[in-house]
Write the structure tokens for this entry.
Amino acid sequence: MLLAIDVGNTNVALGLYDDGPEASGGSLRTTLVRDWRMRTEPRMTSDELALAMRGLLGDYVDQVTGVAALSTVPTLLRELRVMLSRYWSDVPHVVVEPGVRTGVPLLVDNPKEVGADRVINTMAAHHLHATNCVVVDFGTSTNVDAISAKGEFLGGAFAPGIEISLDALAARAAQLRKVELLRPRSVIGKNTVECLQSGIVFGFAGQVDGLVRRIVAELEEAHGGPTAVLATGGLAPLVVAESQTIQHHVPDLTLLGLRLVFERNFRR
């Protein structure tokens, strides 16, 4: 089985993919067998990373036949490489960074600035939809990225993430506090908790819809249409149901992209 590891700023996502061939066509399966999440700790060592991940994998540890990984946390990137060389040295493994084959043209001013997660999401979105795509990634920040029908990464927009915004509001406003992230009973909140929930849930849905509409308009003017709009990230379920522009919710988009980059580098 292939182990996909996505080290983000807030959480680490792990996914296991089956290595067996499909019944038809002989292509490799892209079905996610199991997945796990754990909190990101930027000061973890390679040994601590291995201990935590192998603990989550349990009996699946001995079934890992390959590893694909990325890290958007610079302090953990080196530790991730060391962990793979120590604990999974006997299986093929790849860490997504400059020089790794992805096949994604980066049509931006400085390609080195583009995070590995955005490149991998581009791969996965283009694999799923042979059209223009917009990927909305609800993570520590909310990333809205544009992808051409040719699979080119065109750039995008960043906005503060949902949890960051809520934390900042609670920290700076004396009468406000952190609340559970749930859809309130109505847009017009009847108490402090509902007012906060309304602003977060419906406010972020409106923000995302506004950005997506503008990006789709530019995409289709420059490249023609249509455009598929995908959402991913841990907080996506909170907003997807309220969004008017998101068409597809793909929770494992980044893990799928890691699967694809592994196949590109080891299964030619």
Notes: The beta strands are 2-7, 11-17, 32-39, 66-71, 93-95, 132-138, 141-147, 153-160, 227-232, 248-249. Confidence is low (pLDDT under 50) at residues 21-29.
